[in-house]
Amino acid sequence: MVVFAHFKQKNLKGFSTKLVTWHDEYKHRSYGFDVHIKEFFQEFQDYFHQIGDSKHENQVSQLSVYYETAARGINPLRLEKIKTGRRENIWIAAFHCLSILSEILQQALEDVNHTIDEAKEMLSQLILSAIQNQLLTQDHLNQVGDYTKIEVIWNDLKQHQQISLVDRKLRLSITNNDIYILIDEIFSSIK
Description:
By secondary structure, this protein is mainly alpha-helical. It is 77% helix and 0% strand.
């Protein structure tokens, strides 16, 4: 299943902002941190489930269990019941979970940015080629911001066999809406 890449990018940037807030909460040892971080794990896990990314969903689930184990007074590494320093054990687990969550988020964001960048590069080359072959004119480039007209232009271009092949390749990793957004960005930069 191909998910709208710009949707993923926007959500991951939102999670990145929230994660910075959670690092501040951790640093200040805020009251209620332990309750709200469980909600954050669940939100993160639900997001990965929604987009069908089971690998990252499982990683976040493992972090949630790791933290929950520490919250129950058990050392999550040795699985021994803690008699003293229980609260400190929770903070150590929170630090570990936030660190790993940060890595997961960074990797997911790099993946989606890479996908978008590759698609944009491919579309840029295709559009420049279409301009050289006079398949696109200045009137087409002036359609910036009007996605319905960009969709019509793209559908007209797809009538050509080579462009149709590029479209098929692009739709393996991004959606049609991503294509329209990227074409709009390219038209804006060329114009």
